[in-house]
Amino acid sequence: MRTFRLGGIHPPDNKITAGSSIRELPVPEQVSIPIFQHIGAPPKILVERGAEIKVGEPIASSEGFISAFIHSSVSGKVIKIDKVTDISGYKRMAVVVKVDGDSWQDGIDRSPELKKEIKIEPQEIIQKVLQMGIVGMGGATFPTHVKLSLPRGKEADYLLVNGAECEPYLTSDHILMVERTNEILCGISIMMKALNVEKAIIGIENNKPDAIARLTECARDFKGIEVAGMKVKYPQGGEKQLIKTLIDREVPSGGLPIDVGAVVFNVGTMFAVYEAIQKNKPLIERVVTITGKDMKDPGNFMVRIGTPVSSLVEAAGGLPESTGKVISGGPMMGKALNSLDVPIIKGTSGVTLLPEAESSRKEIQNCIRCSKCVTVCPMGLEPYLLMALGEREMFERMEDDKAMDCIECGSCSYICPSNRPLLDYIRLGKVEINKLRRARKN
Amino acid sequence: MGFVTVSPSPHEHTQGSVPKLMYGVLIALLPAFLVSLYVFGIGALIITLTAMVSCLAFEYLIQKYLLKVTPSISDGSALITGILLAFCLPANLPIWLVILGSFVAIAVGKMSFGGLGNNPFNPALVGRVFLFISFPVQLTSWPEPIVNRLSYLDASTGATALATMKEGMKNSESIPEIMAGIPAYTDMFLGKISGSAGEIAAIALLLGLVYMLIRKIITWHIPVSIFLTVTLFTGILWLANPAKNPDPLFHLLSGGLMLGAIFMATDYVTSPMNTRGMLVYGVMIGIITVVIRVFGSYPEGVQFAILIMNAITPLINKYVKPRRFGERLEDG
User: Fold this and answer.
1) What's the mean per-residue pLDDT of chain B?
2) Strand A76-85 and strand A52-53: pairing?
3) Of the listed ranges A61-70, A270-279, B204-213, B214-223, the one predicted with least confidence
4) Are B8 and A424 inside 8 Å of each other by CB?
5) Hey, are the CB atoms on A368 and B117 less than 8 Å from each other?
6) How much is the pLDDT for B66?
7) Residue B273: phi, psi to the nearest 5?
8) In chain A, where the domains are located
9) Chain A residues closer than 8 Å to B268 by CB
10) Cis amide leading into A168 (omega within 30)
11) Which residues does chain B have within 8 Å of residue A327's beta carbon, measured at their own beta carbons?
12) I need a labelling partner for A392 at 20 to 30 A (CA). Which of A279, A415, B127, B135 fits?
């Protein structure tokens, strides 16, 4: 069975909301749309306080190459442009809109009708992807147009589509693959055209047989798209692990997928691309899984960007009494929230509620040198060593021992029988190594 | 607001823990213990219980009164040290020697370095080698199998297969002649032989290995590399001169090789931290064991081989790195 070779773990997958149809979350009374939702430079704000805006209207424009447009997800009046606590826990600039009705900008096709024919040229696709605010929706939110503009001298021969969804609990990609199958395939075809590649492979973990079946069936009507089932193993959806699994190539240390001729996109991004190119619809909403063992009515919702997490929790039956932790994302790589007021952004694939009993870390004990952290590391690193070096602030040695290759999947901290915070120290090391690298350049 | 916990990812943690791993090893040791009870009876019971209780007691007392920390004896590691120490002692060893060995294992071998996780040498082997060097007579008279179930200190004794082999070779006897005085391989496999309490039955130890592999307590790298190296090395010697060298199966089934390769060389704390390093470590243990057995003056070499490689483990960890993702491309 197809999978990556080095490391990996098998956390309980807890896909409670698998197969639960996408429901439309009612537009909230007020949204806060952070203008900084992606990796790269913050965009320039285009609206002023008091402005009346429509759904789909740009409210921030791209500044610099690695940046993205932001559009209003609702119609109404801009009541505030101020710093708001976002998912990162930091206060960042956001446009706050008081909702009034739901009137959309002209030219956006909201009909469910499938538009398969691609009439647009590659260069225009890249331009449009930029203007429609498309970013990677798997969580890293890297602006998509940047990935489409290949560096000089590099060529892609594979477009790889990430439908692994290896993160426990989350099912937003899964339901999208089942219910928006043709749209995703069409999005992939558009990207193939933009990148000038002949072959695309969609990688999906085998715990989603319905998605594999649907996509395989529908892919017959599209040229050059293969669907590949993959073994259920975390982090199967890690970019480098996915490439290794699907085309058996290893991205070199410090390199990018394009160095081995691959470009990787998430399935959610492919759906957004379809809507942007074929329907002229900017990225203003996405599927978000709201889930937790004690939730009354967990599910997958189509949510407008900027909607507070609290609205989503309400729609799923309210906050369970037992809640000990609220996570933006899943339990392996998600961020714990300190407030339900933070807005859903383009990279939010789910909100996971953990009960009190599963929320706190267990007491740290001596390292017994069992080497399980080394065994499970998908990058072939030595987490125990990196932590020991981190504790002693030996950051240059951490760099020599490839700390920067860490993808922060958390497998080491997960598996450690002594409950040691391995990843915490590796993250610390990465920050310090970056400082060292900047100092070296100057 | 009801929820208060905010911490960095991952938010999920395995159900595994140190005690679970340690108790898993204890379960894996159970078949060997049962064979030991069957073959040596009351003696095996006395020394095993004595070693386990005294290891626990010494660890508790040292942590509580000397180091003044919360005792952590419930993690099961002291129990493993105790049972492993007993397994490499003759079942007719006086209680006071067992207690002394336990003291050296825990106090010198483990706690003096800072307790679980910090000791460079396998504590049970430290205790065993201390006794072996200090009390060679008591440590090299093993009770005869089966017949001594009801006797302890007064058990009738016999030589082990390895000792018989060494003695015979010293007297320039040929292998077929020596083999006549050595139990059949099936008896060695099933444990109906003289030897230390827990080392005798290859089948019971292999059962423990299978259990630990299934539970993913250890990986195959260390035991398998030891077995293969010993087979290859002794196989070459045997093929070169079958009249002077016993076959590889003899080496695999005799002495403490199985016990050492499966339960002592695989000790987490004192073995290398990645699979490449484990292979280097296993191969070296195999080579040193055979060198001592064949060319040295001691009949058995496993314990020394493991201790020597324990000392080299930090070097292996430093120079033998795991295969990094993207390594091949980077090199090419």
Assistant:
1) 92
2) antiparallel
3) A61-70
4) yes
5) yes
6) 93
7) -100, 0
8) 25-99, 122-278, 288-358, 372-441
9) 368-371
10) no
11) 9, 11
12) A415
The structural domains of chain B, with segments of one domain joined by +, span 19-138, 159-319
**Confidence label for B152 from pLDDT (cuts 50, 70 and 90):** confident
Q: Backbone phi, then psi, for A221, in 5-degree steps? A: -85, 0
| DSSP secondary structure string for all residues of B62-89 | IIIIIS-S---GGGSHHHHHHHHHHHTS
Answer yes or no: do B20 and A408 touch at CB < 8 A: no
Averaged pLDDT for residues B59-68 = 94
* Interatomic CA distance for residues A30 and B282, integer angstroms: 65
Residues A369 and B268: beta-carbon distance below 8 Å: yes
Backbone angles phi, psi at A59, to 5 degrees: -115, -10
Residue range A288-358, CATH number: 3.10.20.600
Question: Measuring CA to CA, which residue among B140, B97, B129 is closest to residue B311?
Answer: B129
CA–CA dist A238, A254 (Å, integer): 15
Min distance A391 CA to chain B CA atoms (Å): 16
- Token pair recorded at residue A162: 């990430």
Triad A311, A318, A325: Cα angle to 5°: 90
Tell me the fold of A122-278: Rossmann fold (3.40.50)
pLDDT at B123 over 70: yes
Chain B residues within 8 A of A408 when measuring between CB atoms: 9
Q: What CATH class does A25-99 carry?
A: mainly beta
| Tokens 């991205």 -> residue | A251
Q: Which residues of chain A have pLDDT under 50?
A: none
CB spacing of A413 vs B13 below 8 angstroms: yes
